[in-house]
Amino acid sequence: MASIPRGIRVIDWKNADKSRSIRYRVRVERGDFIVDRSFGQDELERAKLFLEDTKTPQGRLLIAQGKDRATLMVSEMERLAAEFVTEGRCTLNHAIDTYLRAYVTPGINCGVDKVQQTAKAADARLNHCRSIEISYIKPGFIEPSGPLAGLREMSKGFARKPIGEFYIDELTEQSTTEYINERLKLGRAKSTVKREVYALQSVVNKLRYTDNKAWKKLNGHNPFALADKTLVKGGEWRRRRIITDAEEEALLNELRSCRNIEMPLVFAVALSTGMRRAEVLGLMWSQIDLDRGVINLDPDQTKADDDRLVILLPEAVAALRSIPMVDERVFHYKIEGFKTNFRRVLERAGLQDIHMHDTRRSFISRVLKDITASPVAIADMIGARSVSNLQKRSIDRIGQGNMISAGAIETEEQLRSVVGHKDGQTTSRYANMAPDAVKRAK
């Protein structure tokens, strides 16, 4: 046995289970300073440090504050033990935070309006997802299974907490499937829940870049990839709404009454080109060639992050010629500002269920009427799922040079190049070839 200094007493200790062990007791009385502390059988070194601290004024002050070396040694050992147990483990909240810092915050701060709006939507979605509560069985209690699985909510240890507070390696396919069920119970659309689950799945996958130690701890296990996604299958709702001639006239009349003269011009350009709102609002005069009848969009302006050549129809050229040239920007609205004003205009005009994106769908549907060999039109009428197969058999590809020379859109292939669709399947989601009476009812 190691030598025991004077001031430390060895005590033969009787434990609660009637077994016996050794304890080391340090009892000191010096004036007003009285202390009596026992240490376990394996804590002789701590007892020695404690005894030394009782012999100096500084040591006694630390003991009074609970900061003596013996206490700090235990705290450090506990910290190291906790780090060993939790090393590499991280909560979903931590994973979301690192994902937001690495991939979302830069977009919010980039200064590009289109990118900022996308990043803000991702930030809001993930911060909401982490707050959704799911149920679990507390550690130390048995998870009911078999015939008793249906009585889970009545079992001991049943509790609820936000999914963001769980360690990722604690989450199972049952947990993430429960998240889906919770969201559906709240009446959220299947498409909304599907986007949330895939967003959370991406957050976990990105740990390999944002926190590699945490990623390796998971050993390739992504609980959101294992969730029962059949629950949200078929959640995509196909919007067929187009803007009728009467609605267009009413909307333009109300837009012309706005103090900002750009409001009707933005709408007119969007309706005559099929360009997205962010693409229209981000236009520069240097990108527009009215003599040739084209617009050259940069990759950072398009949804697909590819440059695109937009072919202008005569009405689009006329709309752009009517816009006064103030500086290098064609329009000076930010996306949020335009959204707010457009919503107010719709309310004043008494129009309901119209989105700015409906201008794109209306443009595509109107152009398709003038294209006779359109597999999209045929697919829409007969309900064919593979537009590409129809397209290969019925459309002859025409170069963009011929399109510019003609000053018109004559084929569906040309239409897709103008609006930036990579395949006919995407275009088919915008097409509404139904009779006018049906269109107004949608």
Task: Walk me through what this model shows.
- It is a single chain.
- By secondary structure, the chain is mainly α.
- Helices cover 50% and strands 10% of the residues.
- The protein contains 21 helices and 8 strands.
- It has a 3-stranded antiparallel β-sheet, covered by helices on one side. Strands 6-7-8 form a 3-stranded antiparallel β-sheet.
- The protein is elongated, with a radius of gyration of 34 Å.
Counted beta strands: 8
End-to-end distance: 89 Å
The secondary-structure element order is EEEHHHHHEEHHHHHHHEEEHHHHHHHHH
Question: In percent, how much strand structure appears in the residues?
Answer: 5-15%
**Main beta-sheet strand count, sense and barrel state:** 3 strands, antiparallel
Structural class category: mainly alpha
Tell me, briefly, the overall form: elongated
**Number of DSSP helices?**
21
Give the spatial strand order of the biggest sheet.
1-2-3
Quaternary structure state of the chains depicted? single chain
Global Rg: 34 Å
Give the fraction of residues assigned to helices.
Answer: 40-55%
Uncertain stretches: 392-401
Give the overall pLDDT as a whole number. Answer: 82
